[in-house]
Amino acid sequence: MLQAIKPKKSIVWLYLLIPVALFIFSVFVPLLTALYFSFFEWKSGQTIYTAFFNGLTNYKALIADSIFWKSFWNNIYLVIACIVGQIGIAFVLVLFANSKLAVGKAVHRTFGFFPSTISAVCIGLIWSIIFHSKYGLLNWFVVNVLGGTKQTWLGDSAHVMLYVSIPLIWQYIGYYMVILFSAIAGIDQQIFESAEIDGANGFQTAIHITLPMIRSTVLVCLTLCIAGNMKAFDSIWTMTAGGPGYSSYVMALYGYTVSFQQSNLGYGSAISIGIFVLSLAVIGGSQWIVKRATRGLED
Amino acid sequence: MKKLFALVISLALVLVSVSAFAATPVANTDLAYKGTLTLMHFSTSEESEGNGGSDGFRTTIANWQAAHPDITLEQDVLANAEYKTTIATRAAANDLPDVFLLQGMNTISWAQGGLVLDLTDIIAKSPYYADYNTAYFTPFTTEGKIYGYPVLTGGTCTVVIYDKAMWKEAGFDSFPTTWADVEKASEYFEGKGIDTIAFGNGGKWQMNSDFISTLGNRYTGPEWFSSLIAKSGAAFTDEAFVKALTETKRLFTETKIFNDDFNTVTNEDAREYFISGDAAAMIGGNWDEAYIWQTLKDTNEEKFNNMGFAVLPQPADATFAPDSQNIGLGYAIAINPKVAEDADKLAAAIDLAQELTGPAFSSYVAENYALGGLTAAGDVDFSKFDPITVAFYNWSYVDTTTCEIYDSYISSAVWDVFNTDVQSMLNGELTPEQVAENAQAAYVANY
Predict the structure, then answer these.
(1) Chain A: residue nearest B425 by CA?
(2) What is the pLDDT of residues A97-155, one digit of tens each?
(3) Any domain includes A280
(4) Which of the residues A25, A244, B260, B268 has an alpha carbon 20 to 30 A from that of B253?
(5) Across the A/B interface, how many CB contacts are shorter than 8 Å?
(6) Which of B112, B261, B411 comes nearest A152 by C-beta?
(7) CB atoms < 10 A from the CB of B338, how many?
(8) SS3 category, B57
């Protein structure tokens, strides 16, 4: 019976042809092209035909480029802030929403997901208005409720990365809530009931039952969170354009600036490859750490 | 009867519109080319509202298209920021449109790369050549060859727009000519909870285009920048230029003159501070003046009538041109060298470029906005303009001396580094000397 409805291999390949071709064209071709041109000098006035091979020059410059490494560490800051902020808060909120006392679970899920449907540029604009030093909501609160003085939030080099992380955290909490909701829904309720009978409190249940049982989903969330924040760009660009100075530069923003504002496409390509390699390393490294750290829990 | 009436009304409307918008019609040159001509620019319909240059540009394009129905003009119109990115990307891909707008700072590298057609002889033969303001060609000239027709209107990049009534209350009948006096005024305005001068450098380019370009000239004089362009000895690290940076840092970080958030807000915010009365003055470009003019005209007649214009005050230790302001045409119409493969098409592209910068354009912007372009429009009849427009015209073209707009020259790779470092400097993270050294390193590496 199963054999009868199973399509021929050729049909399967035919169905896959268009999406696979699109995937290759939109992901692999640009990546390989960037890799190719990262070995070229291709600056303003040079075209794709007059760019010339310069070996490893761009990569040597990249390794010594302090702005690139500052941008990388800003990405790492963003990754850590968003793992804690996005996945951590989402996990806590899901636990609250799943408790017996919570009402309107569907409402929490729906409204929580809303911000992740808004374009990042709009998020950036909304939060620029909130952070605005003269007319912003935050300063209104600080002055009128807390009795403090107005702050130039996005002009504070020391803390600007924290401020640009907040909109990103706010935007994606709901996204991870939806994923975690569905993962927790898959856990047999009898396990929670048994734990309750055994006298486990909410915190113990979360740490010793929920978290180990949705370990794979959390790992997926971590991967998505790291990958998403290693290529962060749009909302930061809208809020600070990387400023003040290079204080809120992230790698993608630096790559964009070098490629399109400085018209240095060869070096910009090297930066893109740098982002790719470092992102893979961070994702791979974090997965290895998480797997090792949670090996005991799985057993 | 109804049809006749409709015809008469239509003709009357056409005559009224023609007399209102186009004093000099587009030349109806006989062109042999019949086909498509691609044009890329940034005069969007939104941009053209209240912006005389953009309005004139779009109107002249429409008139040229109407005069040449056999030519299909395919326009790719993007907002300015997107235009700059897209045109640079298309240049890198060797896929430029037939006719496009060349930014001054790209002239040398694009000319060296063979991306723009040498127009020296063509421009010399232009029927409007005698009326051209040839000084405008400088940013588009390299090694004695001209690569574009300077386009749009010659507007200042650094003007102090102030509220005369507010400054009179502070004890100044006109805007101070020295920074020392502005500092005195700032004590008064601070007491009132008002910013003395609003400025926005959130986009990073504003401090360069709208401030340092003019302030630098006060310290270095024009020869220094000419030498920098020509690579004949001047350097960003020269003492006079470092002094200009030092003074910029002092004014923005050690005095109470500017709004605290100048490094995070944009010029759009700064002009709103001025319009709302939160600031007694603002520093911006002609585009800010156009916006403030339009907004106040519609909403606040009293403040509109109190608008005044001034040059940057002179620093105590500066020695050059105290009445200077940076003005020019930042873009020129350039032609893709591939167009020259078809002589008829090239003739059409040249005709388009000449008309978009010729008397049809300049008379339109002169008569409707009191603005000037590449081609002289003759005497402007000021009787129909409001006094603020006349005052700004006189301030821009008659009463002040001019200096160059830094980022119309050299290279975006240099200015991007410089602009970002200046923002850091004004946030207290770099010294003027470090900014100068980094800019010089970028200059050596990229220019």
Answers:
(1) A245
(2) 888 777 877 787 788 888 889 999 999 999 999 999 999 999 999 999 999 999 999 99
(3) yes
(4) B268
(5) 114
(6) B261
(7) 15
(8) helix
